[in-house]
UniProtKB/TrEMBL annotation:
Gene3D superfamilies cross-referenced by the UniProt entry: NAD(P)-binding Rossmann-like Domain (3.40.50.720)
Superkingdom, taxonomy of origin: Bacteria
Residues in the signal sequence: none
InterPro entries in the record: NAD(P)-bd_dom_sf, SDR_fam
Organism field: Amycolatopsis viridis
Name under which the protein is recorded: NAD(P)-dependent dehydrogenase (Short-subunit alcohol dehydrogenase family)
């Protein structure tokens, strides 16, 4: 991908950061867009920055270009678009990973007993941002036949698993965008789809459970619970996305939502530790079957 230009929204941390790095590893120029910089923190109050992500892209062999952008602001997205157009002329890959909903998600109360303001802010951060980004940035992708647009969500289908109505609406909405993009972009020789990780071992999740990437298994018997034994790093999904955009027949997946484990079975990659977590099979064999996760050996699922 040494001649390819990529833009990743929400690239400060998590899957966005990992996807930027893996596409950089393939040699791409990657615009790393997010709100947190070394000079200015976002409301997420996390330590990761877009500059760090860009440096990781550089170290992997690509070219990282950090650009601060709040995707709730149309003028800021316009400025980002103008910069990419001026410097690169267009985009080969757009990965839309904006989120920013964590501070407003309420998993503990019924929707009608939760904060309406928080619910609306979650949906605004999670869906309006995607609509703004797509409206302004899709024309840059359509200039290059064979372009790929990837929406990043949580969950491979619309089954409700009790995560709260606003969160559910946001993640279903992103899957719906993937379906619509699959249909809309096909006529222009481009592919649109959505992807999802499994139980994600993100920076924030590690902090929540009080462990590090080196000691994450300590949380299986504690705050993470038995399901955490099937968790995956953000690089697992990122390797799947890298395989997707390299696939000359990626259009066969247009409109679908592809999970990290589905991509693993398709392309044969591993997580950074050499394992192949299969959250989908674990969920089907354990949770849908009504079994106690603590009584199931996770070894066969990774």
């Amino acid at each position: 991908m040494t001649a390819k230009t990529v833009l990743v929204t929400g690239a400060t941390r998590g899957c966005g950061r990992a996807i930027a790095v893996e596409l950089g590893r393939a040699g791409a120029t990657v615009y790393v867009a997010g709100r947190t910089t070394r000079e200015s923190a976002s409301p997420m109050r996390r330590p990761e920055t877009i500059e760090e992500t860009a440096e990781l892209v550089d170290a992997a062999g690509g070219r990282g270009v950090p650009v601060r952008c709040d995707f709730t602001s149309v003028p800021e997205v316009d400025a980002l678009r103008d910069r990419v157009e001026r410097e690169s002329g267009g985009l080969d890959v757009l990965v839309d990973d904006v989120w920013g909903g964590d501070p407003f998600a309420d998993f503990a109360h019924p929707y009608w007993e939760s904060s309406l303001d928080d619910a609306l802010r979650l949906v605004h951060n999670a869906l309006d941002t995607h609509l703004i980004a797509l409206h302004r940035l899709l024309p840059l992708v359509l200039r290059r036949p064979g372009g790929v647009v990837v929406e990043v969500t949580d969950g491979e289908d619309d089954e409700y698993v009790g995560a709260g109505i606003p969160y559910y609406l946001a993640k279903c909405g992103v899957r719906a965008l993937g379906r619509a993009l699959g249909a809309e972009l096909a006529a222009h020789g481009c592919a649109g789809l959505a992807v999802t990780p499994g139980f994600l071992r993100s920076e924030a999740m590690l902090d929540l459970f009080g462990v590090t990437e080196e000691s994450w298994r300590d949380a299986v018997a504690g705050a993470g619970g038995p399901d955490f034994a099937i968790s995956e790093t953000p690089y697992y999904l990122a390797r799947g996305v890298a395989a997707l955009v390299h696939d000359p027949e990626v259009s066969r997946f247009a409109g679908r939502t592809l999970a990290s484990w589905t991509l693993m079975h398709e392309y044969g990659f591993t997580d950074v530790d050499g394992s192949r977590p299969d959250w989908g099979r674990w969920y089907a064999d354990v949770h849908r079957a009504g079994r106690d996760p603590a009584e199931v050996d996770p070894a066969g699922y990774r």
